[in-house]
Records
---
Amino acid sequence: MYFCIFFAILMNVFNIDNISVLDAKTVVTVGMFDGVHLGHRQLISHLLALSATTGLTPFVVTFDRHPRQVLDPSSPLSLLSTRDERLALLESCGVPNVAMVHFDKDTASLSACDFAARFLCGRLNMRMLLLGYDNSFGSRRNNDFAQLPQLAASENFDIRNDEAVLMDGIDISSTKIRRLLQQGDIRRANAMLGAPYSVCGTVAHGRHIGTSLGFPTANLQPDDPSKLLPAAGVYALRATIGGKAYVAMANLGTQPTFHQNHNELEVHLLDFNEDIYGFRLQVEFVDRIRDIRTFASPDELVAQLHVDRETAISIVNK
């Protein structure tokens, strides 16, 4: 499941530059782990199993920023999880140790063998490297990933490979999940994630249109502007505030009936009537109900909202 971060991460999170060579020998896997989907979860399960059978200390090595945010800043990348969400999700999978690499242009220039020698062997005392089915790291320009077996022989570590996790014959990846969310295919995205896609943020004042219609909404401002929002539409949600969960529905996008052309995430919590401006709110996208439409009158919109309400209840409580 996803987490709105109200608590400290309890697992060990290290800045890899602050680690001198570990005394403990380690088994390591490397990746961005955006979304910590079912493929990542299998990889982590494999990592922990190898640790149990070999006695090696398990480490997940990840990055403080997505490489594309550094290598191609002119092409914005929306992410499935914020840094804190990634850490919370990794912890929920049982990961005891994470080493965080600061990704910048210097890091990007390292070849795979240089990266492994400097960080994985030089800092983490790695004795086993577990690679995901499509895993690679290191500079594309200085691409020596294929030479890792030679480095393994000289630095005395083993390499193991994980298999892809397939769904309907398609290998699960963060890229595919982002595409599904951008298409509004919440069900398939959630199935690949292994949990409902979640967004956390703060409730801000909006135009109060929903209140005038009898459907007051919380204007949710996501914590991180790089957090991916699904395609525009009306959604069935599960909303959590103050530790309590509610059935909810949301209009994500514009409000053309009222000539409002700004994209906003407006959340209506069912059977809830409290002032929550400034509060933290988490929403889980359960399914998409319909497209956004322009209605002939506010009364026609209200009639549709009552239908949407019943649809949201049936979806979330299924």
Note: The longest helix spans residues 298-316.
---
Amino acid sequence: MSQPIAAKSNPLDPALFRPAAISAETRAANEALAKLLDNAPNWWDVGVQVFRDARAKGGGAFPPIVRSDKARTILIDGQGGHKVALRVIAPEHARGVYLQMHGGGLVFGAADQQDPMLERIVQNTGMACVSVEYRLAPENPYPAAWDDCEAAAAWLAKNAKAEFGTDVLTIGGESAGATLAAATLVRMRDRHGFTGFRRAILSYGNYDTSMTPSQMRTPPKGLLVGRTSIEKFSDAYAPDPKTRRDPDVSPLYADLKGLPLALFTIGTLDPLLDDTLFMHARWIAAGNEAELAIYPGAPHAFNLLPMPLGAPANARCDAFLKSAVS
């Protein structure tokens, strides 16, 4: 008779969630961020395009935009005749490919607004980075962004070897990008019979658009992201409340079997904390391997901001991706 497999120890350390776990440096950074955003206008008040234009000029909480002279654009066929732009930054001899979806609540962000991050990943992993310029809400609500990311993944599954000299594929994103990456993995499995992605980086995604307890309990005006802004984003990309627990919109409710090793990253002050804790548990319950990285006191998008815990979180993500080719 075979011996039972011993259960792994609980990866959730309660000490990580206690106030004492938050360093003085992180507290100071959070206070500085709150002060910076104290009088910032709400995008739903001033208009989405005003906010997009300000970000394109380098405004807002995030660092100024620096565009790489190493980047190039590939246009591929999307659904319904739509063309999808892929922003590529690649080394001369790629060891693998990282398909990345940017964040921004599915309302903001762009593939060319994160080049320093992509360059860092190229440098630290030897992989080519391919970022999807998916359509944004509210002009293009669900399923537009999902369709564009699926088209990018399907194209990469067929063309990575010819385009980049490697068929080692990984996938991921931050915030809305993590939401899309998880949904894309499920679509690729169900619609294309493809399960060839080796790693998934899923950083503080919104995996339940109908709202988890931590989303509902966060103050209306939170640190960078509050309950009101979450509601406004959801109204923009999923205007029909009946769709919000559709497994395609909210991958927490999807069949997650047969998906790759994933790294879930979250800060304890992120309103999407429960989304990551729940999704990590469901990923494992579906029979997949997963790692969970919890950062005490870190707010939403902390590793995209000049914050103390950003560098170690990024280093762990890069090492995780690199393990796909090590």
Note: The mean pLDDT is 95.
